[in-house]
Amino acid sequence: MAIEVRVPTILRTYTDGAKTVTGDGATVAELFTDLEARHAGIRDRLVDGGELRRFVNVYLNDEDVRFLDGIATPLSDGDSVTILPAVAGGAEAPA
């Protein structure tokens, strides 16, 4: 089963600069395990304690997996998974 994974710029150091990679797995968790085997170090940036890291958003065919079954969300051949780190921060303008 081939799943297309869109990788954000900040994680492309783990994929040798590739914007998209393919992986296998029946669930998002299994996909992340497969990605780790192919791109060492990436899983730790996505998962902490068996759950998605707080500031990492993962979309399955444009649906946020947090509103589905989290990392237990089932995958099908041809699905597209997008990893999108949350953007926050900045400073208030000086008064």
Write structural notes for this entry:
By secondary structure, the protein is of the alpha+beta class. It has one domain (3-85): Ubiquitin-like (UB roll). It is 17% helix and 26% strand. The protein contains 2 helices and 7 strands; from the N terminus they run E-E-H-H-E-E-E-E-E. The protein has helices at 28-38, 42-46; strands spanning 3-6, 20-23, 47-48, 51-52, 56-60, 63-64, 80-85. Strands 2-1-7-5-6 form a 5-stranded mixed sheet, covered by helices on one side. Strands 3-4 form a two-stranded antiparallel sheet. Strand 3 (47-48) and strand 4 form a beta hairpin. The chain is globular, with a radius of gyration of 14 Å. It starts with a strand and ends in a 10-residue tail after the last strand.
Q: Can you lay out the helices and strands and say which pair or pack?
A:
Elements: E1 3-6, E2 20-23, H1 28-38, H2 42-46, E3 47-48, E4 51-52, E5 56-60, E6 63-64, E7 80-85
Helix residue percentage:
10-25%
- What structural class results from the helix and strand content? alpha+beta
| Helix/strand order | EEHHEEEEE
Identify low-pLDDT runs: none
| Shape by Cα distribution | globular
Largest sheet: 5 strands, mixed
Number of helices: 2
The named CATH superfamily? Beta-grasp domain
Mean pLDDT: 91
Q: Separation of termini? A: 55 Å
Main-sheet strand order equals: 2-1-7-5-6
Instruction: Please provide the count of β strands.
Output: 7
**What is the CATH architecture assignment?**
Roll
The CATH topology is Ubiquitin-like (UB roll)
Radius of gyration, in Å, reads: 14 Å
Query: What is the strand content?
Result: 25-35%
Instruction: Give the tally of structural domains.
Output: 1
